[in-house]
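Students often ask why we bother encoding 3D structure as a string. The short answer is that it lets us treat folding as translation between two languages. Here is a chain of 343 residues written in the first language.
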Amino acid sequence: MKIAVLTGGGDCPGLNAVIRAVVRRGEQHGLEVMGVREGWRGLLDPPLHFRLTREATSGILHLGGTILGTSRTNPFKKPPGGAEMVIKNLKTLNVGAVIAIGGEDTLGVATRLSSMGINIVGVPKTIDNDLSGTDLTFGFDTAVGIATEAIDRLHSTAEAHKRVIVCEVMGRHAGWIATHSGMAGGADVILIPERPIDIEAVCAHITHRHRTQNKNFSIVVVAEGAKLGISESTVAQKLDEFGHVRLGGIGQQIADLIEKKTGYETRVTVLGHIQRGGTPTAFDRVLATRFGVHAADMVAKGEFGKMAALRGTQIVSVPLAEATAHLKTVDDAFFSVAEVFFG
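And here it is in the second language, the structure alphabet:
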């Protein structure tokens, strides 16, 4: 059987480890693996693809990014008839199954194509760790490590200059990176999308810390998707091909308000794409490899319409619909642990 592998959405440390594992395991199952370039865009006209072999995937385990390239193309939105075009091209290329590696949007497309009769296996990928159905996604550990190191470094300069420093990290709808890195880095305030920001409470906490706890600096970690409880508009903001607002800027807004309301000099650092670029951690390499091997096994067994997932310490198969049913957000019990250190 010929199978196609694609990577969609934002790039993520560990993607190449998955691709490598699919090829190696697929070879053992007698599968011919075809790499699709630029996510779902590569299955539109003209299809962009090339043969994936052991040689082509040698030496990529430790590399960040994806050798296949990626995009945020959604064939159900554009071009017109995109989904039908994908199905037609898969038949023309004699592809028996697709392994789609991606997050909520990429796997959302996979779920819909699966309902249309396409044999699809999913692999969960997002540094935000917000996919339901799996305990963890690869890339998350790398992103948390990078953010934690940045917070450690910000402590030094914040204390030296007696400043408040706001560190903006990724997290559109879920504050997992902010919460984990904030806890690991000893942040004084963590702001996440799950909770509207009470800027008055934030400023009161910082003021109390500086005046009564003999501290002359503070670190605030904020997820990019966190929202202020004041009037704001995203009408003029640009949207990606999945219809999402391109985020960024909340860190600067928070910094401006803190300085205005407290009088403390406040600076902002936006980590942005640094969090998802570069070499994956050992944990992410291993998790991604396990996902890739399991995905190839699922194809060989005919387990379509499902996704590889981590449950406890085991890799299992779960329905794609379960993975995209809802976002996995930071629960109150977990966040309450971080709040212990805000006082």
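Translate back mentally: Residues 142-277 form a domain with the Rossmann fold fold (CATH 3.40.50.460). Keep this in mind for the problem set.
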